[in-house]
Specification:
The chain is α/β, with parallel strands linked by helices. The chain is 28% helix and 24% strand. Strands 12, 13, 14, 15, 16, 17 and 28 form a seven-stranded mixed beta sheet that branches. The protein has a five-stranded parallel beta sheet with strand order 19-26-20-21-22. Strand 12, helix 7 and strand 13 form a beta-alpha-beta unit. The longest helix is centred in the last third of the chain and has 25 residues. The chain is globular.
Length: 546
């Protein structure tokens, strides 16, 4: 049986691929791409073989591709760097296809696209879950700076190895060999042997290739935020021939990306993690030619009557005919004076596999009564000794889906605290205990990891009043936009704002940042797709008026 990670193309498929590349024969064994290459080509073996090796593991052979097999993974759809070395054997003949041509053929030929993307996704999954390698991160597990880097790599599916200086002999040996002091931690060591001391998130993103460069032309659509609504808009816009660029300040997925398992999303009967759903949508958008760059955080936006200019972090300016605000909402901080001290070292706003490891046999707390809190509690209960769920009200089912409520009640190591608030956090460097106020009585519990999923603060500060919002910052759209708030222009003289359009024509809002949105993944995806049909109407109107 053929390994689905390494399928064999039919001769008909190979013949189609030949139209997109060039045929080369190698007289000697030749390195065709190597670790760290920013852009590298896709190869189909016509005769001979290509051997893929892991340089970080004594040139261990990962796979040998034979006739009608192909190289590559989904990094080729973006600008992520090559993770392995690939050698064409002596006398081999290969079909070489450039990345831009590969993207074009994937969007044009669905049968080939299905084979390639399926293999790419499974190769990525194998690399992330079964191989040790990639970027090395050396730091302390209790360090907030180290946690931020690990969290970014985990959520952006960046292949890496974490070496905990508190327990790893290899970590200490590496520090000694490079004469690195502990006050210089954390450090990144990339596969090419380059060292980056105390890296910022943008520096890490540049090393990994997720912070991409794109042209300065005027785009049809700029999507700000890569949560479910933003990714849906990106997929639909790019697939319908619009030029699209999507930015996000952290990682694909938004709040949904923090859900350990979503079981009530249509089409996934066994459930899917928010992070996996976001990763598939991220690849899907790139498949159709969407430019996605992370981390770019929106700082302000200007409108000159014809197009929008967005100013983002990392000195980026993006011009677009239309803008979709899909920046979502963040969970609110608990109103505790010293909470900032423990963020990243005991207090967290998502529950991932990385967190689960540190929760093994520990007492864990989950604050919140929504679906994200319920999903986190059940996920963490598989690893922790006890999970204490804290809600302010007396009805867990008030905001949480019934299937989650029933599972929480049935879980022997989940303890529910109703009408309860977390009022104090204690610990020297890492969280060691919390104090609960249970109907006026205080109780101290040795919780070392606290996950909070409360409230929703819209991420709309970057708008700075350019569009109409309510007092909390949620964006008004459609019928909620008042006559006085509408921008004076010819379009609004003939019609009101469309259902997802804001007080400026051509500026749309979708998902959790929009006033009145339904806080569910399916509705966010629906809004993202609907916004593109409304953008088509707007672009048609501006074309006629010009």
């Amino acid at each position: 049986m053929t390994d689905p990670r390494f399928p064999i193309l039919t001769q008909k498929q190979v013949n189609v691929l030949k139209d997109f590349g060039t045929i080369e024969t190698f007289d000697d064994s030749t390195l065709v791409f190597e670790v760290g290459d920013n852009t590298y080509d896709f190869f189909v073996v016509l005769s001979g073989e290509v051997c893929v090796k892991d340089e970080s593991n004594n040139e261990k052979v990962i796979v040998t591709h034979g006739v009608n097999e192909f190289t590559g993974d989904n990094s080729m759809l973006s600008s992520r760097k090559a993770q392995f070395n690939a050698y064409a054997s002596k006398g081999s003949t290969l079909l070489r296809i450039k990345p831009d041509k590969l993207q074009h053929l994937i969007s044009k030929h669905s049968d080939i696209s299905d084979v390639l993307l399926s293999a790419f996704l499974q190769r990525q999954e194998t690399m992330l879950n079964e191989f040790s390698g990639g970027i090395k991160l050396i730091g302390s597990q209790s360090s907030k700076e180290t946690y931020a880097l690990r969290d970014f790599m985990e959520k952006n599916h960046i292949w890496h190895t974490f070496l905990n200086i508190d327990t790893s002999e290899e970590a200490q040996q590496l520090l000694d060999s490079f004469s690195i002091k502990e006050d210089e931690l954390p450090i990144l060591l990339n596969p090419a042997g380059e060292i980056c001391r105390k890296p910022t998130i943008p520096e890490l993103a540049e090393q990994a290739g997720v912070l991409t460069e794109f042209g300065n032309e005027l785009y049809d659509v700029l999507v700000v935020g890569a949560g479910p609504s933003g990714l849906a808009a990106s997929v639909y816009a790019a697939s319908e021939g619009l030029t699209v660029v999507t930015i996000d300040g952290n990682a694909p997925g938004g709040q949904a990306g923090k859900s350990s398992k979503i079981e009530n999303y249509l089409g996934f009967p066994t459930g899917i993690s928010g992070n996996d759903l976001a990763n598939k949508a991220y690849i899907q958008a790139q498949k159709f030619g969407c430019n996605i760059s992370i981390p770019h955080r929106a700082e302000k936006v200007e409108y000159n009557g014809d197009y929008f200019t967005l100013y983002a972090t990392n000195d980026k300016q993006i011009k677009a005919k239309t803008v979709i605000a899909a920046t979502g909402a963040n969970y609110r901080r608990l109103p505790i004076d010293n909470i900032a001290k423990f963020e990243g070292s005991g207090v967290f706003y998502s529950a991932t596999g990385m967190n689960a490891v540190s929760c093994k046999n520990e007492l864990v707390g989950v604050v919140g009564g929504g679906n994200s809190a319920g999903q986190a509690a059940l996920f963490l209960a598989e690893h922790a000794k006890e999970v204490h769920v804290v809600i302010r009200g007396n009805d867990l089912g008030a905001k949480m889906s019934d299937y989650l409520v029933q599972r929480i009640i049935a879980s022997p190591n989940i303890i529910l605290h109703k009408e309860t608030n977390v009022v104090e956090l204690h610990g020297e460097h890492h969280l060691e205990s919390v104090v609960l106020d249970i109907s006026g009585e205080k109780q101290t519990i040795g919780i070392s990891n606290l996950f909070t999923f409360i409230g929703a603060k819209p991420c709309s500060e970057w708008l700075d009043g350019i569009v109409s919002t309510d007092s909390k910052g949620f964006i008004y759209t459609g019928v909620d936009v008042t006559e006085n708030a509408m921008t004076k222009c010819s379009i609004f003289e003939h019609r009101k704002p469309q259902s997802l359009e804001t007080s400026i024509p051509g500026f749309f809002a979708v998902g959790d940042v929009r006033k009145g949105s339904v806080k569910r993944v399916a509705s966010a995806v629906g809004e993202g797709s609907i916004s593109i049909s409304q953008i088509h109407q707007y672009l048609a109107e501006t074309k006629v008026s010009s």
